[in-house]
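Aim 2, interim progress: modelling of the magnesium ion-bound target.
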Amino acid sequence: MNQILIIDDQKLIRDSLKVVLEKNSYEVHLAETGCKGLEIIKKGGIELVLLDVRLPDIDGIDVLKKIRAMDPEIIVIMMTGYGTVENAVQAIKIGAVDYINKPFESKALTTIVKLALETHKLKREVRGFQDRNKMLYGTDKIIGQSKSLQKTLDMVNKISQIESSTVLIQGESGTGKELVAKAIHYNSSRSSGPFVEINCSAIPTTLLESELFGYEQGAFTDAKRAKQGLVEQANGGTIFLDEIGDMELSMQSKILNVLQERKFRRLGGGKMIDMDARIIAATNHNLREEIGKKSFRQDLFYRLNVLHINLSPLRERKEDIVPLTKYFIHEFNQSFKKNVRDISQDAMDLLLNYSWPGNVRELRNTIERIMIIENPEIILRKHLPAEVIGEISLELSSPKRPFDPIVLGEDGIDLKAITESFQAEIISEALMKAEGNKSKAAKLLNMDRFSLRYLIKKYHLS
Ligand SMILES: Nc1ncnc2c1ncn2[C@@H]1O[C@H](COP(=O)(O)OP(=O)(O)OP(=O)(O)O)[C@@H](O)[C@H]1O
Ligand SMILES: [Mg+2]
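Predicted structure of the complex, ligand included:
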């Protein structure tokens, strides 16, 4: 039940308000002076105060100021009598949400109270949502120790402080372009506005224009009703143009125009609309190369490239692999309620040596898959995907090891027996290749003839 406090010196008003509000299932407290009212608020629990502008002890406006200082979350509605409307206007400036003139009808009063409480609740929810996004996309969620990543973080922080300059993020697939774009938005003064994403490569050019700029009724056959475009929807926030390198030239010139004018028209519309959205564009193409091939406009590139962030591929910042791996293990432990404690050193060495063509996304997916499917206490070499293991065994294979990676089972192995059978196998292979010629075979195995003869006898080969 919402708790409401009425501060008014007139008993008649206090009592009649109490009756009306209690009928509407509010819990009502009463105070006849400002001081007594403040006492009650101090005890906590009051959500809304109906406050008379004119009070015998402290002035209503001063009581309002004190309430604001004690707890800015408390909703205050002023009650004004004849000749005190100016005070009400002043009160709103200080932070009262509304005012109501005496005498008032009970219906009007309950409507105002109900509305104020609902709006307040909504605002709190929105704020909670924003705080959550800020937490989810804070710069502390961008992990890495490499110089290059630290530089990126530094840029993200600086760019967030600049209100609306355009940003270009370049990097291979999976390097964190979207993560960075969101971090910029949610750490900027635009964070309470929307973050609107559009993937330029996923939408055909013909649709892209109406998606971005919207249209007026009748702009084309199917335009039965006017529609806001994404640029308009991003008002006060950020628009993320993903894969801008895939945008066709005709569309590029339209975007360039909007960036220059900071104004646009809906399709079939006459009125120019102001753009109040920051544009963050991202691409995994090398735009300078695209300019060379005439598939990207140079002037648009310079427009976009005012502030730029280059995300290097993971293989060029291997220092990030250890912290990222540990971070993902922690993340999936929490989200999947798992209990993976660590990763073994040799498994980590494999991760460090792999080239990660899919960059951070591939590393994240690898850890996720292991944790869902294998759910080990400690991630070992055997849990890693073949390509991660495979690449290193090739790299280490100098001298080349013409056999599969060895897996040491739970029960261990008999090293001597394995080595001997392996030796025997290799020697007979060499003898076959040398067509029984022992000198030739010895050469193939890089050993002398006497040692070979000894081993042939030992293993009963012929
Ligand atoms: N430095 C990082 N710290 C933590 N997570 C990261 C980091 N970089 C990338 N990721 C994670 O890797 C995944 C891929 O990142 P993101 O989607 O931002 O990449 P992208 O560059 O936009 O890729 P694409 O070009 O394929 O769209 C996401 O799950 C993201 O959270
Ligand atoms: Mg992306």
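The pocket of magnesium ion (ligand 2) is lined by residues 177-178, 242 (CB under 6 Å). Residues 151-312 form a domain with the Rossmann fold fold (CATH 3.40.50.300).
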